[in-house]
C-alpha cells in the first residue's frame, strides 16, 4: 500500500504538489476540490452528474470520464458523496482494482460501523483508508475555523497531512476507522444541545418583548463561554466516576422547576428543557442529590 509517495516536491511550485482525485462534487466536494486547486495540487474530479464539474475545470481541475480513470490519475482519492451506499458503489463497483496502492480518504458522513466495514473493504482492494469527519460547512473549507477529524491508517495520515491541510486543521483521532464519525457525531450532539438551549432562551426573552439579539450578544454568549469552562472538570468526573459535589449539587438545581414554570406562564414551550429536568430529578430520586450534575451521564450510558 502506498502511504508515503503521494506528495512529491514540485520545483516550479516550490511546495508539496500531490495528484488528488475528488469523487463527488456536491456543495462539499466542490469546496474540497477548490481548496486543493488553490494550493496548487493536481486535481482530477468526477461526479455522477458531470455538469457539476464545469466550475472546477475552469479553475484548473481535470475531469475524468469514469471513477476508475479519476482514481488511476491520483495517489490520494477523496470521496465525498451523500451516503455510504454511494461510496460503496464508487469504490467497490466502479473503482475496484484501480484503487490498488492508493490512499482513500472518505469524508462522507456515516456511522462508526460503516467506517470500519469500509476500511476492511478498501484494504481488500489493496488501498489504505482514512475515514473523516468534516467539522465545517462548505464556505469554511480552507479557512482558519475548519477542523477535519481523521481515523484509520496513521501512516496514511502522516504521509498526506500536508495535502489534507488544504481543507482545514486535521486532527487524527485514532487507528480505529470508526473514531472519526464517532467524534463527529458526539460534537454535533454537543452543538445541538447548545442550539436547543439557545432556542429556549430566545423564546423566553422574546415572550417578554425583549430583543433577542441584544440579549444574546451581551448576556448569553458570555454566560455560555463562562459555563463552558466547567466542561473539562465535568469530563474528568465522568472519566473517574467520582461526582462529588464541588459547589452546585443536583438536589439544589432541581429543588423547583422555575425554568419550566416561568416558560409555561409566558406561553413558551418547555419541551427542550423538560427531558434534561426529568433526568436531573431521576438522578436525585436515585439517591445522588448531593453530587454534581455530571453524574446524569450514568442515566444515559452505564459503563
Ligand atoms: N454540506 C455540509 O454542510 C456538510 C458538512 C459536514 C459533512 N457533510 C457531508 O458531506 C457529504 C456530502 O455533502 P454535500 O454537502 O456535498 O451534499 P450534496 O450537495 O447534496 O451533494 C451530494 C453529492 O453526492 C453525490 N451522490 C449522491 N448519491 C450518489 C450515488 N449513489 N453515487 C454517486 N454519487 C452520489 C451527488 O451526485 P449528483 O447528485 O451531483 O450526481 C453529489 O455530488 C455528506 O455525507 C454530508 O453529510 C456536508
Polypeptide structure, described:
- The protein is of the alpha/beta class and 303 residues long.
- The chain has two domains: 170 residues, Rossmann fold (3-Layer(aba) Sandwich); 118 residues, N-(1-d-carboxylethyl)-l-norvaline Dehydrogenase, domain 2 (Orthogonal Bundle).
- 48% of the residues lie in helices and 16% in strands.
- It contains 13 helices and nine strands.
- Strands 1, 2, 3, 4, 5, 6, 7, 8 and 9 form a nine-stranded mixed β-sheet that branches.
- Helix 6 links the parallel strand 8 and strand 9.
- Helix 7 crosses helix 8.
- The longest helix is centred in the middle third of the chain and has 29 residues.
- The protein is elongated and about 65 Å long.
- The site of ligand FVH has 22 residues, from helix 1 and helix 4.
Secondary structure layout plus pairing:
Layout (H helix, E strand, L loop, with lengths): L6 E4 L4 E9 L3 H12 L3 E5 L7 H5 L3 E2 L3 H6 L3 E4 L4 H12 L7 E4 L5 H13 L3 E8 L11 E6 L1 H11 L4 E6 L4 H29 L4 H17 L2 H10 L9 H4 L4 H8 L8 H15 L8 H4 L3
This protein binds ligand FVH.
Amino acid at each position: 500500500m502506498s502511504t508515503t509517495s503521494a506528495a512529491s516536491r514540485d520545483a516550479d511550485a516550490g511546495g508539496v504538489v500531490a495528484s488528488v482525485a475528488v469523487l463527488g462534487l456536491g456543495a462539499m466536494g466542490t469546496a474540497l476540490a477548490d481548496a486543493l486547486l488553490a494550493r496548487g495540487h493536481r486535481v482530477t474530479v468526477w461526479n455522477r452528474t458531470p455538469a457539476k464539474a464545469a466550475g472546477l475545470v475552469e479553475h484548473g481541475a481535470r475531469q475524468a470520464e469514469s471513477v476508475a480513470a479519476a482514481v488511476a490519475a491520483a495517489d490520494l482519492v477523496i470521496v465525498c458523496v451523500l451516503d455510504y451506499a454511494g461510496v460503496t458503489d464508487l469504490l467497490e463497483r466502479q473503482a475496484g482494482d484501480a484503487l490498488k496502492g492508493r490512499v482513500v480518504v472518505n469524508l462522507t458522513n456515516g456511522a462508526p460501523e460503516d467506517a470500519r466495514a469500509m476500511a476492511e473493504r478498501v484494504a481488500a482492494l489493496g488501498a489504505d483508508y482514512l475515514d473523516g469527519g468534516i467539522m465545517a460547512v462548505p464556505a469554511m473549507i480552507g479557512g482558519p475555523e475548519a477542523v477535519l477529524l481523521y481515523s484509520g491508517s496513521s501512516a496514511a495520515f502522516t504521509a498526506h497531512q500536508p495535502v489534507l491541510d488544504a481543507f482545514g486543521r486535521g486532527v487524527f483521532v485514532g487507528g480505529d476507522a470508526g473514531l472519526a464519525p464517532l467524534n463527529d457525531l458526539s460534537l454535533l450532539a454537543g452543538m445541538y444541545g447548545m442550539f436547543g438551549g439557545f432556542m429556549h432562551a430566545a423564546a423566553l426573552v422574546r415572550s417578554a418583548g425583549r430583543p433577542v439579539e441584544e440579549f444574546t450578544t451581551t448576556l448569553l454568549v458570555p454566560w455560555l463561554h463562562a459555563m463552558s469552562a466547567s466542561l473539562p472538570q465535568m469530563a474528568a468526573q465522568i472519566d473517574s466516576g467520582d461526582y462529588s459535589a464541588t459547589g452546585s449539587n443536583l438536589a439544589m438545581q432541581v429543588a423547583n422547576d422555575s425554568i419550566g414554570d416561568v416558560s409555561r406562564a409566558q406561553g413558551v414551550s418547555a419541551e427542550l428543557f423538560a427531558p434534561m429536568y426529568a433526568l436531573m430529578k431521576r438522578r436525585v430520586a436515585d439517591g445522588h442529590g448531593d453530587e454534581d450534575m455530571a453524574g446524569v451521564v450514568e442515566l444515559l450510558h452505564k459503563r
